[in-house]
Amino acid sequence: MIEVKQNNDEKHGSFEAFIDGNRAGLMTYTWAGEERFIIDHTEVEEDYNGKGVGKEMVLAAVDFARKQGKKIIALCPFAKATFQKNEDLQDVVV
After folding, report:
1. The predicted structure's pLDDT at residue 1
2. What region holds the N-acetyltransferase domain (predicted)?
3. Cα dist. 17→9, 32, 64, 91, 94 in Å?
4. pTM higher than 0.85, yes or no?
5. At what angle do helices 53-68 and 77-85 cross, to 10 degrees?
6. Which residues contact 55 (CB under 8 A, 6 or more apart)?
7. In this predicted model, what pLDDT tens digit does every residue of 16-75 receive, in sequence order?
8. How far is CA 92 from the centre of its chain?
9. Cβ of 91: how many Cβ atoms within 10 Å?
10. Which residues are within 8 A (CB) of 68 and not within 5 positions of it... i.e. 6 or more apart?
11. Is residue 51 within 8 Å of 19, Cβ to Cβ?
12. What angle is formed at CA 61 by the lines to CA 19 and CA 21, rounded to 5 degrees?
């Protein structure tokens, strides 16, 4: 099971994915004003490639955006591709 934890401050934040207590991935973002944040980087540890870690972090970001009434700007190629492939996630994309 993939567990995703969010770290957030006034300017930056991240979503970290863990599998069995081991860090499996990291997705970072930067706030662009109060209403939007920019996903700028996603990385998955090599041992966890192909296990859905990246998508779980994107889904956590979408959940956060929906609950907080925020929008996402996807600059990271992985996040951008994930949004393009999943129409049901596009409501939070700028």
Report:
1. 92
2. 1-94, 7-94
3. 18, 23, 15, 23, 24
4. yes
5. 80
6. 82
7. 999 999 999 999 999 999 999 999 999 999 999 999 999 999 999 999 999 999 999 999
8. 12
9. 11
10. none
11. yes
12. 15
The token pair at 28 is 């970072």
- In SS3 terms, the chain reads as CEEEEEEECCCEEEEEEEECCEEEEEEEEEECCCCEEEEEEEEECHHHCCCCHHHHHHHHHHHHHHHHCCEEEECCHHHHHHHHHCHHHHHHEC
Cα–Cα–Cα angle for 32, 56, 91, nearest 5°?
A: 50
Scan for tokens 């979503």, then name that residue: 15
Residue 58 tokens read as 């994107």
The tokens for 75 are 């600059």
